[in-house]
Design goal:
216 residues; 4 helices; 23% helix; globular
């Protein structure tokens, strides 16, 4: 029988990334509209007014709504990638999965789960690979997805990258999922996603949710 008494849960750590220019952290802690709007306004301040092609208030509203929608599913981190002109490029959502008393599945067991998407059809053959990240071993899947439009008229294509990361010393699986529709920038967004995921690290938290060692 395996002793898991030294294992930590998802509540014992936080995921941190080194965001490159273009990425906006939209993670909410309280989930309120006020918090989302404050975060959005702070993000818009970092856009160069000389290159911004959309009204600032419109961008604030878009970021506010995006943060609130993503927060409904209880992610541990949400980010979005925008062009310098204020155009939306891609969304990144990080979620954690663990169940008390249940042994974490292996990367091989998780791989077929990553090849399943709800309400969409995979177009072509997904690109599947296994890699070692600083945060632990991972399975990576990249695929083109096709979704039916409203009323079933026509279809909508998007590109998705999903990582399942297996941090050592835990029974948790971290899923990192990005998605975009601007296919002319697929090569760039693929590179940005992979570079961002490579920076992921787990920071231990104390009982109050504060980073252990922060400020020391």
């Amino acid at each position: 029988m395996t002793d898991h008494s030294d294992r930590v849960s998802a509540d014992d750590f936080a995921c941190r990334f080194d965001f490159q220019p273009g990425w906006i952290d939209l993670t909410l802690t309280e989930g309120s509209k006020e918090e989302a709007e404050q975060l959005a306004r702070a993000a818009v301040e970092h856009f160069n007014p000389l290159t911004l092609l959309v009204p600032r208030e419109s961008l604030v509203k878009e970021l506010t709504d995006r943060a609130l929608r993503a927060d409904e599913d209880g992610p541990i981190l949400v980010a979005a990638c925008y062009s310098g002109g204020g155009g939306f490029l891609a969304e990144l959502v990080v979620s954690s999965y663990a169940e008390d008393g249940v042994t974490r599945p292996t990367p091989a067991e998780v791989e077929p789960m990553l090849l399943q998407w709800s309400n969409v059809k995979v177009v072509g053959t997904p690109d599947v690979s296994h890699t070692d990240l600083a945060a632990g071993p991972a399975v990576r899947v990249q695929a083109t997805l096709q979704a039916k439009r409203l009323f079933g008229i026509g279809s909508r294509l998007s590109e998705s990258i999903r990582y399942a990361v297996f941090p050592p010393g835990t029974e948790t699986i971290i899923e990192i999922a990005t998605r975009w529709e601007v296919f002319e920038r697929t090569e760039e967004l693929t590179e940005l996603t992979d570079e961002l995921v490579a920076t992921m690290r787990l920071v231990p938290l104390d009982a109050d949710g504060n980073e252990i060692g922060a400020g020391s």
